[in-house]
Amino acid sequence: ESIKTVLTSPENRILIKRMLIKCADISNPCRPIEQCIEWAGRISEEYFAQTDEEKRQGLPVVMPVFDRNTCSIPKSQISFIDYFITDMFDAWDAFADLPNLMQHLDNNFKYWKGLDERKLRSLRPPP
Q1: 55: Cβ–Cβ under 8 A, 6 or more apart, which residues?
Q2: How confident is the model at residue 1 (pLDDT cuts 50, 70, 90)?
Q3: Locate the PDEase domain: which residues (predicted)?
Q4: What's the rounded Cα separation, in Å, for the pair 80 and 15?
Q5: 111/122 Cα distance (integer angstroms)
């Protein structure tokens, strides 16, 4: 009933649609672990390439943490989850009840935290 009340306002519907788009854009930590790892690698490589190009051209480096020689992918994922994902998806879960999504988020955070605790900087532990 409370959701129906929220959805009666055109402004609220627009806000919810904007929030859905934003959540979809940054939802990688809420995917199943294998997809999360794959996309974290792709996103990191995109940022590494940007940093490489900025250095090559002598431009200011926008994201110095994404220097491929020093970056810890687990640390970058932990920070991203801590600063952007957790609160946003906690709020979304309270509104829409998304237990599977929240379980993936918890599993992925623990995965990245485990790599970081082992002082690993890569996407996966060594074989």
Answers
A1: 61
A2: low
A3: 1-119
A4: 23
A5: 12
The residue assigned the tokens 């900087």 is: 121
- Whether 123 is in a domain gets the answer no
CATH number of the domain that residue 78 is part of = 1.10.1300.10
Rg (CA), the chain: 18
Name the residue range of residue 94's domain.
Answer: 3-118
Within-domain flag for 40: yes
If you average pLDDT over residues 67-94, what whole number do you get? 96
Give residue for tokens 């590494």. Answer: 48
For residue 49, how many C-alpha atoms fall within 13 Å in the half-sphere facing its CB? 6
- Judge whether 124 lies within some domain: no
Confidence (pLDDT) at 70: 96
What are the tokens at 35? 């997809």
What tokens does 106 get?
Answer: 């918890």
Closest CA to 52 of 42, 63, 41, 43: 63
The answer to whether residue 73 sits within a structural domain is: yes
The two three-digit tokens of residue 112, written as one number: 């990245």
How many structural domains comprise the chain?
1
